[in-house]
Amino acid sequence: MKHRNQVFDNVLDLVGKTPLIRINKLTSKFKGSFYAKVESFNPGHSSKDRIALYIIEEAEKQGILSPGDTIIETTSGNTGFSIAMVSIIKGYDCVLAVSSKSSTDKIDMLKTMGAKVYVCPAHVSANDPRSYYQVAKRLHEEIKGSVYINQYFNELNIDAHYKSTGPEIWKQTEGKITHLIACSGTGGTISGTAKYLKEQNPNIKIIGVDAYGSVIKKYHETREFDEEEIYPYRIEGLGKNLIPTATDFDIIDEFVKVTDEESAHTAREIAKTEGLFVGYTSGAAMQAVKQLGEEKRFKKDDYVVIIFPDHGSRYMSKIYSDKWMSEQGFFDSINAESVQTIQY
Ligand code: PMP
């Protein structure tokens, strides 16, 4: 670590080494101890800082990237922000092909971080030349010296967490961890962290969190792609309608499904009871813990680590907006009254 007395050479020196924070109230009914790995303490406010920095530095080591080159990815979310941040410090051009479904807030945030953003139509198939997948692929072919991060199909995504998140958790828990609970989107976080942890202690239980409407849990159980599992859902960042190669299905013991509504309420509860302002998928992961707790799946000496992937500020117009919650039908009339603002 390059810092001296909390003075850093640049923002990238702060990537990783996130705290483990005890969950005190939300889990008080359950046996065991519960700790959240709070990834919003990364400088880009999410776990994706780890993969952006790692994948880019690997490409540098292999001589694939040199200053002035271009880094391409297809996301308006956390990964886009992290790549933009790393690109600024290291002197790369960052090109992001995003869907027209992305909010203007998100697009403005990426542009603020110096990214060139291509907004591509949302309602075309992945094979359509206008889709963000195809636009990214084409840009990668056209721009000499460009690197396509392709996080869903890049095994360096797993390595990033194998080399950082896993060892950090092992050290922070002094080897006492018994369960890891993590949402699975690309699957990089859960797969890489689990690989390291299981090498230390193969008895650690690895539990993935999936959304209703995603194909991942069923694929884990059957190794068959069941299109009937797929339908729209609201949680962003977990679950998928395809099978990412950045997920190591063999290392995950089981998946738990959570609903949009319960995950949203649980995220709000984390803020209100633990004082931790975290994102939608943190609510989803905590919701999975609650479900397992209700099923009496934890014992007295269990040491459960839950990954909280990002910060709540990215969801102000969604789960932290009372208006949005009401529009989704997530508030009953009593709740709606209790959240009214008093005008003077
Ligand atoms: N939560 C959020 C908010 C995310 O953006 C992602 C990444 N898609 C995840 C969880 C899941 O992490 P991973 O991609 O490593 O499975």
UniProtKB/TrEMBL annotation:
Tryptophan synthase beta chain-like PALP domain span: 12-310
Pfam family, one: PALP
CDD domains in UniProt: CBS_like
CC cofactor: pyridoxal 5'-phosphate
Keyword Cytoplasm among UniProt keywords: no
Annotated keywords: Pyridoxal phosphate
Domain of life: Bacteria
GO term, biological process aspect, one: cysteine metabolic process
Homology family: Belongs to the cysteine synthase/cystathionine beta-synthase family.
Name of the featured protein: Cystathionine beta-synthase
